[in-house]
Write a structure and sequence with these properties.
Layout lengths: L1 E6 L4 E4 L2 E3 L6 H12 L3 E6 L11 E4 L3 H12 L4 E4 L6 E3 L18 E3 L3 H5 L7 E8 L4 H11 L4 E6 L11 E2 L2 E4 L2 E4 L3 E2 H18 L1
Parallel strand pairs: 1-4, 1-6, 4-5, 6-9, 9-10
Antiparallel strand pairs: 2-3, 7-8, 10-12, 11-14, 12-13
Helix pairs in contact: 1-5
Bound molecules: cytidine-5'-monophosphate.
Length: 212
């Protein structure tokens, strides 16, 4: 299959040297890409700035901002048969980007923020018969309810939900404890490596594709 994977954070510029971002390491998305490649799928990996090596064989499209990531997904969606949106897209960007470095002297600046585009929700208008997998990184016990809400809203076939504050889950660790939320309900997976979670996601996509 042709699988489009997004990974990592995005960076939203404040001025030429500063930005807003988040703690995503890119590990989960890179693990999905690696698992897909292991199975012989073709992978385009749209990646925000990360410091981990790309899996061999992936075609990496590096991006910085949410707007860049949306443009890259827009370009590669037509090619793809499945989209796995692992990226932790920044939800807000500074409304105005200063062309010069903002000086420290004087009053502290007040940042006005604007929403970034929801890449997955926008892609859903062009879903066709593609398989869409989204993620829901939450903080708290109601993460499965949130994942179910996002699955419907963003027209995903599968949302992989997790509580990023749970032990062994979340940022910069090699493991994750996730729940698969589909139209059929919730499947809780045990704590496992991100690569193993990636393999389960690829299994799920393959099974889903075989049913179509
Ligand atoms: O609403 P929330 O950000 O929690 O949704 C998470 C899912 O939506 C993830 O799959 C993420 O990659 C995607 N997303 C997106 N564009 C955004 C924000 C999130 O595609 N601006």
């Amino acid at each position: 299959m042709k699988i489009l994977v997004t990974a990592g954070p995005t960076r939203e510029a404040i001025d030429p040297v500063r930005y807003i971002s988040n703690r995503s390491s890119g590990r989960m998305g890179y693990a999905v890409a690696q698992a897909a490649l292991e199975r012989g799928h073709e992978v385009v990996l749209v990646s925000g700035p990360v410091s981990i090596p790309a899996p061999a064989g992936a075609r990496v499209v590096p991006v910085v901002s949410a707007a860049d990531m949306k443009a890259a997904v827009d370009v590669h969606l037509a090619w793809s048969e499945a989209l796995v949106m692992c990226a932790a897209v920044a939800d807000w960007r500074p409304k105005r980007v200063s062309a010069v470095k903002i000086k420290k002297r004087g009053a502290s600046p007040v940042l006005q923020l604007a929403r970034t585009p929801d890449i997955l929700a926008a892609a859903s208008a062009r879903k066709g018969d593609r398989i869409f997998v989204g993620f829901a990184a939450e903080t708290g016990a109601d993460f499965e309810t949130e994942a179910a809400r996002k699955r419907k809203k963003k027209r995903c076939d599968l949302v992989v939900g997790n509580d990023v504050t749970a032990p062994g889950a979340g940022f910069d660790v090699e493991t994750n404890r996730v729940s698969f939320v589909t139209v059929d309900g919730v499947e809780r997976l045990p704590l496992m490596s991100k690569l193993e979670v990636g393999r389960r996601i690829v299994d799920w996509i393959e099974r889903q594709a075989a049913l179509r």
